[in-house]
Amino acid sequence: METTSVSPRLQSLDIYRGAAVAGMILVDNPGSDELAYGPIKHTVWNGWTPADLIFPSFLFIVGVSLVFSISARLARGESRGHIFIHAFQRTLILIAIGIFLNAFPVFDVGTWRIEGVLQRIAVCYLISVALFLWTSTRGQVVAAVACLIGYWLLVRFVPVPGFGIPGRDIPFLHPDGNIVAWLDRTLFPGRLYEGTRDPEGLLSNIPAIATCLAGVLTGHWLRTERSARLKVLWMLSAGFICIAVAEVLDFWFPINKKMWTSSFVVLTAGFALVFLAILYWIVEIRQWRGWWTTFFLVFGMNAIAGYVADALVYGPAYSFHTKGPDGTAITWQQFAYAHLAKLPLSDAGASLVYSLGAILFCWCLLWLLYRKKIFLKI
Fold it and tell me: Domain range holding 315?
């Protein structure tokens, strides 16, 4: 029988993480928010684009990774309590970094955003660690399903103050008339990413936990002694089934990234399973490695540094201003795009060149760390 080692680190997972970091930088830094190619722009509301798969991939990877890392620590004799305390400390640091980067580089106290990407990762990580440490695989499945069903019940049937009951008084998944947006406006007025709502809403952390738990369950599967090819086959099968189920669920609970709907969780878990299965077959089984793996490993083995590097690009680009050709004040991003637009490229092509430049800039910063074997850990 062909078996795989249960190494605490999978290079295919690091490459997946690196691809997610590169994708994040690509999407976060368009030369033009309006004119960029459709696949690298987030969906306005219901539906999905490839760009919407990036953030869930991070949470999925977090889930897979914690299974390997915590299993190794337990095998070394560390107590569950000690591991959880360390996870709690990491959570607080991630939240602090996320809040800091939300304000960078302007630091306007009056509009300082509290919720965010790193904050969601931190919360989902901590809860997933607790479930991994103190529940069985069956308990983790039950928790994931409870998150998905419970969130649907919450969004579908709880009356929204000032709006009414979704599906009766207001359209179901009304952008502002939903319980998620209402709670965020109540708790964080003037501090939401989209003014009246936030894509990393407090209540939408509930289904996001299920995304991380999908990674945890995948980690359990990868640590079994089954053959490598069987692992790939089952991940592919499960992934395609999840995608099909999500498209069916879309009729009752539309796929929506900004609300992180339960159908969105199932869809993105399916894509994550398929993508990881393909990488696992290429990297772990076929051993097809080379310059392309190094490119993604530079990002994947320093993901926190990659997130900070991304903020160093889009923060100043969107916040600082200079004079445009007509003398009016424009952002650095608009200034750079105006010059790229003069090249013999389409509008979307010029926007893509800007995005690729951002990736290259961040990669060079991280390559310096990679070359020195400096990997920022929390």
Answer: 11-371
User: How many structural domains is the chain composed of?
Assistant: 1
Q: Contact, 150 vs 144, CB < 8 A?
A: no
Beta strands in 130-190 (DSSP E): none
CB-based contacts of 196: which residues, under 8 Å, 6+ apart?
175, 176, 181, 185
For residue 295, the tally of other CB atoms under 10 A from its CB is 17
Q: If 0-12 CB within 10 Å is exposed, 13-18 middle and 19+ buried, where does residue 183 land? A: middle
355 assigned to some structural domain: yes
pTM beyond cutoff 0.85: yes
In the numeric block, the tokens 């999905």 are attached to 48
Q: Whole-angstrom Cα distance, residue 150 to residue 250? A: 17
Place of tokens 């997130």: 307
In a domain, 6, yes or no: no
127/137 Cα distance (integer angstroms): 15
| Alpha-helix residue ranges (DSSP H) falling in 158-290 | 179-187, 205-222, 228-249, 262-279
Q: Is residue 378 part of a domain?
A: no
Residue from 284, 310, 280, 296 nearest 370 by CA: 296
Cβ count within 10 A of residue 309: 22
Joined together, the tokens standing for residue 330 give 């424009």
How does pLDDT run along the chain (378 residues), one tens digit per residue? 333 333 446 899 999 999 999 999 999 999 888 889 999 999 999 999 999 999 999 999 999 999 999 999 999 999 999 999 999 999 999 999 999 999 888 888 889 999 999 999 999 999 999 999 999 999 999 999 999 999 999 999 999 999 999 999 999 999 999 999 999 999 999 999 999 999 999 999 999 999 999 999 999 999 999 999 999 999 999 999 999 999 999 999 999 999 999 999 999 999 999 999 999 999 999 999 988 999 999 999 999 999 999 998 988 888 888 887 777 888 888 888 888 888 888 999 999 999 999 999 999 999 999 999 988 888
Q: Could you give the CA distance from residue 200 to residue 121 in angstroms, rounded to a whole number?
A: 10
Query: Using CA atoms, how far apart are residues 68 and 9, in angstroms rounded to an integer?
Result: 7
Tokens read off for 36: 């960029």
**Amino acid in the structure at residue 241:** I
What contacts 295, CB < 8 A, 6 or more positions away? 18, 363
Residue 3 included in any domain? no
